[in-house]
Design brief:
Layout lengths: L13 H8 L8 E5 L6 H13 L14 H8 L5 E4 L4 H7 L11 H5 L1 H5 L9 E5 L7 H12 L5 E6 L8 H4 L3 E4 L5 H12 L3 H10 L4 H7 L2 H16 L5 H8 L4 H19 L11 H10 L2 H17 L6 H14 L4
Parallel strand pairs: 1-4, 1-5, 2-3, 3-4
The structure holds zinc ion (ZN).
The site of zinc ion (ZN) has 9 residues, from helix 3.
């Protein structure tokens, strides 16, 4: 999310948060937060953890924000909370020798939990492990986690965030109690975007469409800096194939591959829709350009490219050579329109 501004309140999380807090006294050993992308599952996990660790919660069971526990929580050093996420480059660097960045949650990270869940809690209350996202578990770390889930220690509660529940091991899913996190309706999302980003109706609709309906992504795109990046990416993609691969790669390869690949996937999906005579969904403002391109596109190559690009998106977060990767993708894209 944008570093420029903290995430505003997400009113649609009230219902699932209340559902969790109502069970405060009979809290399951493991909760699995499940719902569509970009609705705030991570934010909900954090709010729930804060409320459960708060020592003087409000009448509604929310975190008071003033007690000692809330203070530690806000500073990220509550002794009865552990966050388990993939280690990014920055954290690895800060942690010094022996800690490597990875897109996986490593087995070592799960093993380290043993020391945390094996002793008494510091504040005599409950202790919480926040696992986000569980999709980052690899086979080894998922198996190690399973052991911890199978032999629950008293007062330990796992809050597990799933990006795509379908890809999680069934053995883990079956040991968690599911909490459905529904997003806002499109009307609620638009009203929220207008309020939190001071947009007019048209602006809110454009960003929500560009974000594929995900409110948090739309909110992040509507940030000046993020929005400019998105517009630039779209501009470059829309000018292909007339602008050559090299000139386009000059611009795109400056950004993280995952960023422009995601925009390109959406662009190609809209091309496919226009090819079938349907209106563009994500890039409504580019409809005329998409229609023109769709007429030039070779239908089979377009479908094949879309599938190939989906596979590439898996490696897009860590391409070995960002520039080469970009050129390769753009050359494949050009082929859709080659005579
Ligand atoms: Zn508190």
């Amino acid at each position: 999310m944008s570093a420029a501004m903290p995430l505003p309140d997400l009113p649609w999380l009230d219902a699932p948060l209340d559902a969790i807090l109502r069970r405060r006294d009979t809290l399951p050993h493991a909760l699995l937060l499940d719902g569509p992308p970009g609705v705030g599952k991570s934010a909900l996990a954090t709010q729930a953890a804060a409320a459960l660790l708060c020592e003087t919660p409000t009448a509604e069971g929310r975190a008071c924000g003033h007690c000692l526990a809330c203070g530690w929580f806000a500073q990220g050093n509550h002794p009865d909370l552990r966050r388990v996420s993939p280690i990014d480059e920055e954290t690895a660097e800060r942690s010094g020798a022996g800690v490597k960045a990875s897109k996986d949650i490593r087995i070592q990270q799960i093993r380290e939990l043993a020391g945390f869940v094996g002793v008494g809690t510091h504040r005599g209350g409950r202790r919480i492990v926040l696992l986000d996202p569980a999709d980052a578990l690899n086979l080894e770390s998922a198996n190690a986690l399973l052991k911890t889930l199978e032999e629950p220690t008293p007062s330990t509660h796992f809050i597990v965030v799933a990006r795509r529940r379908q890809t999680l091991p069934a053995t883990i899913v079956s040991r968690c109690v599911r909490v459905d996190v529904a997003g806002p309706t499109p009307e609620q999302a638009l009203a929220w975007l207008r309020r939190t980003r001071s947009l007019d109706a048209e602006g809110a609709e454009l960003w929500l469409a560009a974000a594929g309906g995900s409110p948090l992504r739309a909110w992040s795109l509507a940030d000046d800096e993020q929005g400019a990046v998105h517009r630039k990416t779209l501009e470059v993609l829309a000018r292909l194939p007339e602008t050559g691969v090299a000139a386009s790669a000059d611009v795109l390869a400056l950004r993280p591959a995952a960023e422009w690949v995601e925009v390109m996937q959406a662009w190609v999906a809209d091309l496919g829709r226009c090819r079938l005579g349907a209106p563009a969904r994500r890039f409504v403002s580019q409809h005329a350009r998409l229609e023109r391109l769709a007429r030039q596109a070779h239908p089979e190559r377009l479908a094949r490219f879309a599938g190939w690009l989906d596979q590439q998106s898996a490696v897009a977060s860590h391409p070995l050579n960002a520039r080469l990767f970009c050129e390769r993708v753009l050359m494949q894209y050009e082929q859709i329109f080659a005579a």
